[in-house]
Amino acid sequence: MSRKKMASIEDLLGKREIQETTSDLSDELLERRKYEPRICSVFSMPYTALEETDNFDFFVDREAKRKLSRIIDNKVQYVVGDDSLKEQYGKKRNIGIVFSGGPAPGGHNVIAGLFDAAKKANQDTKIYGFLQGPDGIVENEAIELTETLVGTYRNLGGFGMIRTGRTKIDSTEKVALSKETCKTLGLDALVIVGGDDSNTNAAFLAHEMMGDGVQVLGVPKTIDGDIQVRDVQGNVLCAMSFGFHTAARAFAKEISNLYTDSASDVKYWHICKVMGRVASHLALEVALQTHAHMTLIGEDLANYVDKQRIEKAQKAGAVDYTAYGMTLRHLSRILCDGIVRRAAVGKNYGVIVIPEGVLEFINEIQTFIIKLNTIIAEYNETHDTDFHSNFPFLSNKLEYLRRLARRSREDSSFTIWNTRDDDLFDDIPAFFQEGLLTERDSHGNFQFSLVETDKVIMELVKDYLDILREKGIYKIGIERQYYAKTVKKAGLDPDYYGPILFKDYDNSNFLMVEPSIISIKTLRQCLTRKGAIKEGENIPAAIEKIFRKSAPKFKTQTHFYGYDGRGSDPTNFDCTYTYNLGLTVFSLVAGGATGQMAAIKNLEQDFSKWKPIGIPIAPLMHLEERKGKLTLVLEKNVVDVNSAAFRVVKALREEWLGTSPGNDMCRKPGPIRFAGKGEEDRPITLKLNALDIHG
Ligand code: FBP
Question: Is there a domain that residue 17 lies in?
């Protein structure tokens, strides 16, 4: 047989088709770069101005009033079309922009929007991008952004253009260096694109730099979706931070695929931890996108009240305070209940979604986190080295805690870590102790992404399922027809063995083996006792087969969805949202604002209703525990259990669990479609909440 002569690798690599096929420039990428997001109608005007409104009030914290006096009286501003200020609008400016915190899809479009608006207003305006987060400001590491550079990243995910970092500009020295950088570059304005901590930083810098004539503005970003702004009346000013929709859609696509796989292979429970440092917004949206069998929502667990315990205590004339709030043990019981009920109709598989920050809502864990935050922060403050370098191993850390417990026994005024804390902490598995003692981030936040939350919960679930298996409660229901066919095929009478084997033979389509039959030994005992077989006689193979089918194994696969979604290319919603945020932030700069955050009001409604605004940051600040101290920060928003989105999920929870025979209710959102008819126009959470809110 003659073989065709192979082309040399050089010839192959020289072919146009091969170069095209292996090029970095995929069709999707080229399409994305070309795409021009829609713009809010006000941006079609040649010039914009800012119109202050007194329509929105906030609860102002006394500490915010004291520390941010120069910007505390800022008002909400509408961006309006106006050419009376065209000279100010078209002034040549130098503007710096920085990404701060974790990446969120859409960030590049904030830069693109700012760049386009600024250059349109004045070609000579310069936009500087600070490299690798706030460190870039402190160290004056910046590049001037050009059309070519901005064009390379239009509509693309990540923060690759200028990268990001988590440094906080929180010391007098760092503030002085930042001021120096702004002076050197001749900046008129500095734009900080970041989460709650970064916008907090923006407010403090705005206050500090007021005298220098540098405007500082924030742009709310985080996939966690926890920057949402309402005024005291509940009017929504910012329904969601950018990046949330894309991350949720990316997670939902993967999780719905697992749903399909588990319903095909029928042997695994997929345990999906999804990002969201504290709030469960992402988990809630994933639930709505996929209809996963079970989704935990941290905020819901925190609200939990154990009515049985309360009644029991009331009867005894007492109050049981432990009945308020969820414990880890109780949480594992809730999951087990769902698993057991699905197994009863033959479905020993499924998908569970666990928010990364769920432990924050479990009383006992929250107490440990706060206590350990304080202990670590106090240690770092009083010693010259840091806690984690001084106690590199878990055993060293535990020894230190033991010393504190000893101290509390000798000195009753020392209460931060007592013997009871130490004993309870000792009961926790080592990997989780390690997680709770893990290094805090630069803002003093507990790093939930480093803790195996899912493992902590699932270990307890496995232990309890073992108990339920022993008690004969956790069993796989056997389809009546299958049982009858199998037994008949072996020449046996199903109606003879049925009442012996099953507890519900007379009235169910899915038959549950008697609770007392939990092993071959107990099966033999039962058959012998009921006279179906004689002492020493073999169990009929068909009966043994049925028993084995009913005995569940609890097999899990764990998955973590976070960094993948954060790096995803933005949905059409996020592309449009962020491009308009970029345009808005330029209007704030041109309008002379400082200490404001760019936002789009009515984001939860149709695009035609979107309204670009500036929101004052200082009145949104409150005191929060950080590094063991009460610190002024922008308030985070957790899931509102009274919101329409949560109430809908709660109402459909039982249906989605799928404890009836037949197909489950999986929803497949599909991959992120950048354009086209099937592309959804906003997160489901927002759609549902829009039906419930007015503002
Ligand atoms: P931001 O709040 O900075 O946007 O980051 C949110 C987040 O993605 C969380 O969901 C997650 O817990 C955390 O970042 C992970 O942090 P890191 O990138 O430092 O691992």
Answer: no
